[in-house]
Amino acid sequence: MERTKYRRGSAGTEICDRLRTEILTLQLAPGSPLDETALSERFGVSRSPIREALNRLLVERLVQTLPNRSTVVAPIDLRNFPQFIQAFDVQQRFATRLAAQHRTEDDLTRLRALATAYNEHAIAGGGLAIIHANYEFHAAVGAASRNKVVQRQYGELLSETRRLLHIHIDYLDTKRDRSLLRDQHFDIVDAIEAQDVLLADKLAHAHTMQFHDRFLKALQHQPEKRLMALDLWPEERP
Prior knowledge:
By secondary structure, the protein is mostly helical.
């Protein structure tokens, strides 16, 4: 049992934050069971805040309820990755186009602040902070679209990209090249500010394909041979 003192009425939120972190960083693997009784014992709380936390994660599409009503960490189905990227590209482009049409000065101020925060996290490191900053930036683009349906659908797809982005960041860490994460966010904001719908569309598409290409490279990455060469028995060298 984790001996944590929760602020009054905050147990569900704090447990949700903890589980979200473990899911996004793959400490809780896709498909892992999330039993209410076991979680209640782990966090030292009743089942009510556990249900609250799981319901929030269900909305974020990070967990799913099976037909037998048990809850598991949502799977990552790489077989459907091409279809996912296709749908994500459409939503990202449409949200960014609408943001270019309908943005306000307050939207622009927020977007520039979030783009700056994202780059700072990309430089400093910390995968979870990068994931969160990227999500916050693109969610703000969705909000600037002024279309609640687009905002909701885009937000759902953004939520699903977070674990994929974690895999991407881990890959860049092995390549020691986090600089690749500092990309087109400011260019997107410039296009939105100029209300250049076609440029916003073009940049949003390029942004999707950049993620697509880097993620596939991460999946194909093979560890360096020198890192796999374990010299366990040096006395047997010829």
